[in-house]
Every structure is written in structure tokens, then in C-alpha cells.
Design a protein that fits this description.
With 392 residues, the protein is an alpha+beta fold. It has 15 helices and ten strands. The chain folds into three domains: 133 residues; 80 residues, Aldehyde Oxidoreductase, domain 3; 122 residues. Helix content is 63%, strand content 11%. A hairpin with a 2-residue loop joins strand 9 and strand 10. Helix 3 packs antiparallel against helix 5, helix 11 runs parallel beside helix 13 and helix 13 runs parallel beside helix 15. The longest helix has 36 residues. The chain is flat, with a radius of gyration of 30 Å. The N and C termini lie far apart (86 Å). It comes from Salinimicrobium marinum. InterPro entries: DUF2254_membrane. Keywords: Membrane, Transmembrane, Transmembrane helix. This is DUF2254 domain-containing protein.
């Protein structure tokens, strides 16, 4: 409107008349067509989103939906649609009759046409992007990259860990005042709190677990005032949803659920299961580099101990789900056995990891023997057992 009052339409009429719509009726028709087309395009686009999200939930896992819904590119495209529609509506109202003619804002109408063209390009990009996003390989890669980033961050923090934390069995326990999934906490604030109050802390719940109101959340070596406890609890992030970016364990759950869903009788997609096992193998390898406990330290002193899911418990939860649905498919069992074999090579000189992997591999092959009856399949299991050093 400011540019129209400055005479930009008159300038265009004088220097580029082909770009300006002089007829009021033509301008009204063009803007009305743009508004109608944009609304139809927006409805179609996000109806497609709902259909694809429903397909992802039924074919892969409902746990994947938060990551798909939060795609910023879809939000930007929706913003382009809505802004173009609102702009065209405002310009439509600004075309006022003056006598027998309309006062046509030529530049504003031209800009509305350009915004409609941009929306069409956004629509084409949306169709391409949504078809790429819904592919299981891209979903798995996104989950893997988020978990890899989180694990790499945690491994970087563990490089120079002093490990001189005191025993906390007789410390003062403090309880949560609300319920929710324990996502994360402010590391710097906890460190400053310990220094200020001259105490040590132990965070009790494992990240990703659901904390009920009234359950213990942390222990303190020194007794704390109610005001200090309330201030410290505000640094704990309890949410009603789970995020891979703050809890890498969720990535293991999501990939495991994709494998289980793919091997269910209703889906029967072993190819997806085999691809998912590859991503799972790499994440397990990274997890083996991380210790079962984390600490927040400063100047060579541990101030806060953070509990996490132990490697043995994590691998058991993964394997328990997989052997239930995959033990009757020799190809998938073979893939899992080679996963254990490759992981054992990674930790050939670590007796703890070696024993945990051997135990889970033995449970898997035992379960497979109870479900497979073909002689060739049983011979394959025997060969796998020998490679994994499970016999003799």
C-alpha cells in the first residue's frame, strides 16, 4: 500500500506497461482465481500429509510420527500458501470503484500473481519432498543421524572423565512435583548449583523413562532448603513426548519397532528389516564406546552423576523384541547373527562386551531353533553358532 501511494503503479505503466493490469474486472478475476486455486492447493497438500502420516503409522511405527510432523519445510510451505492467500484477499479489498471505473493497484496485482507462481513452485517442491520423506530409508537415516549426533556429543564429554565420585547410598532424596518423560536437564545450572551449595548430586531416573509425581528425582549429599529444591527441579525437563535429539535410547526403540513392524504378518517386509538392522548395528557400535554412567565435572572433580540404561539392559530389550518376530525367518536371523559377529570383532579384547554379545546371540539362535524345522536352515544355524563360538 505504501508503494502504491508512492506511485509505483504509474511508474510501471510508463516503463513496463505489459506487466500492469489496467482493467479492474480483469484484476478482480485474476485475484479471485488465485485465491481459489491457492486454497484448493493447500487443502490438497495437507490432505496428502495426513494420508502419508497414517500410512507411516500403520506400515512402520506410530512412534515415528513426531519426527515427520515437525518437518520445518512443510511448515514453511504452509506459511507460503497462507501468506499468499491473505495477501491476495487484502489486495482484492483494496480495488475500489471510482465512478464507472476501478482504481487498480497494478503493482500489487502483479505481486499477487508472482506470489501465486511461487506457491506453485512450493507445491511442486512439497510433492517431491513428501515423497522422499515417507521413504523408510530416509526415515531411518534421519533417526540414525540424530542419535549419532547425540552419542558423539556424549562421547566427547567422557574423554577426560576423572571418575572420583563418592558413594551416594545415604544421601538426601528429593522427589518430583509433576509427571512426565524425563528428557534432559541444564548441565551448567546443575554444576553451578553444586558449587554454590557445596554439595554433590546424583540424578536418579534414566533419560526417556516416565517419572511419576512423588518419585525420587535426585539425591544430594547436603540437605537442601525447599527454595533450593524448587529451583533445582526447574532445571529438569519433564515432557509429554520423547525426542531422539535429547535421548539416544529412543532411536534404538524406533528402529527396533520398525523391524518388528516389518516382520509382522500384516506387513511382511523383510527387506526393510534387513536395512534397519544395518542402522541398528552402527548405533550399537557407538553405544559400546560409551560408559554406562555419565558425570558432570569441572577442574578434575565430579559433581553430578547421571544414570543411563546399561549396555546389557539395552541389548536385551532390543533382542527380546527382535527374536519374538524374526526368529522364524532364517535370512533375518542370519543378518542378526552377523551383526553380533561384527560387534564382537569391535570389542575383541573387552571380556564384558564379548560376554554380553555372546549371551544374546545364543538366546537368539536358541529361539530360532525352536521355530525353524527345515534341515538346511538348522545347518545354517549350526554354522552361525560355530562362527559366534557358541558351541563346544
Amino acid at each position: 500500500m505504501y508503494l502504491e501511494r508512492s506511485g509505483i503503479s504509474d511508474y510501471l505503466v510508463e516503463h513496463a506497461p505489459l506487466l500492469v493490469v489496467n482493467s479492474g474486472d480483469t484484476a478482480l478475476t485474476i485475484l479471485s482465481a488465485c485465491i481459489t486455486g491457492l486454497i484448493s492447493m493447500m487443502v490438497f497438500s495437507f490432505s496428502m500429509v495426513m494420508v502419508l502420516l497414517n500410512q507411516a503409522a500403520s506400515d512402520y511405527s506410530p512412534r515415528l510420527l513426531p519426527g515427520l510432523i515437525s518437518d520445518h519445510r512443510h511448515q514453511i510451505i504452509l506459511g507460503i500458501y497462507i501468506s499468499s492467500i491473505l495477501y491476495c484477499i487484502f489486495i482484492l479489498f483494496s480495488i475500489q470503484p471510482t465512478g464507472d471505473k476501478y482504481q487498480v493497484p497494478g503493482f500489487s496485482v502483479l505481486l499477487g500473481i508472482l506470489l501465486t507462481v511461487i506457491s506453485i513452485y512450493a507445491f511442486i517442491y512439497f510433492i517431491h519432498n513428501i515423497s522422499e520423506t515417507i521413504q523408510i530409508t530416509n526415515i531411518l537415516e534421519k533417526i540414525f543421524l540424530n542419535a549419532q549426533k547425540r552419542l558423539s556429543f556424549l562421547l566427547e564429554q567422557e574423554k577426560s572423565m576423572p571418575r572420583n565420585f563418592p558413594v551416594s547410598d545415604d544421601w538426601f532424596e528429593y522427589r518430583s512435583k509433576k509427571s512426565g518423560y524425563f528428557q534432559d536437564f541444564s548441565r551448567n545450572d546443575l554444576l553451578l548449583f553444586c558449587k554454590k551449595n557445596k554439595t554433590f548430586l546424583e540424578v536418579l531416573p534414566v533419560k526417556g523413562t516416565f517419572v511419576l509425581k512423588g518419585l525420587p528425582v535426585f539425591r544430594s549429599k547436603e540437605k537442601l532448603s525447599d527454595e533450593a529444591v524448587n529451583g533445582l527441579l526447574s532445571n529438569f525437563h519433564l515432557s509429554r513426548k520423547e525426542l531422539v535429539t535429547s535421548n539416544y535410547v529412543l532411536a534404538f526403540k524406533q528402529i527396533t519397532e520398525v523391524i518388528v513392524k516389518a516382520m509382522s504378518p500384516g506387513i511382511n517386509d523383510p527387506g526393510t528389516a534387513l536395512n534397519s538392522i544395518d542402522y541398528l548395528s552402527e548405533l550399537i557400535r557407538l553405544r559400546m564406546l560409551k560408559s554406562d554412567e555419565s558425570f558432570i565435572s569441572d577442574s578434575g572433580q565430579d559433581y553430578v552423576r547421571v544414570r543411563s540404561v546399561t549396555f546389557e539392559e539395552l541389548l536385551y530389550q532390543i533382542n527380546a523384541s527382535l527374536r519374538k518376530y524374526c526368529s522364524d525367518d532364517i535370512v533375518v536371523v542370519q543378518k542378526l547373527a552377523y551383526m553380533f559377529l561384527a560387534l564382537k570383532v569391535q570389542v575383541a579384547f573387552d571380556p564384558f562386551y564379548h560376554q554380553v554379545l555372546k549371551k544374546e546371540a545364543e538366546i537368539l539362535l536358541t529361539e530360532a531353533r525352536t521355530n525353524l524345522r527345515n534341515e538346511a536352515d538348522l545347518d545354517t544355524l549350526d554354522i552361525l553358532a560355530k562362527k559366534l563360538d557358541l558351541q563346544g
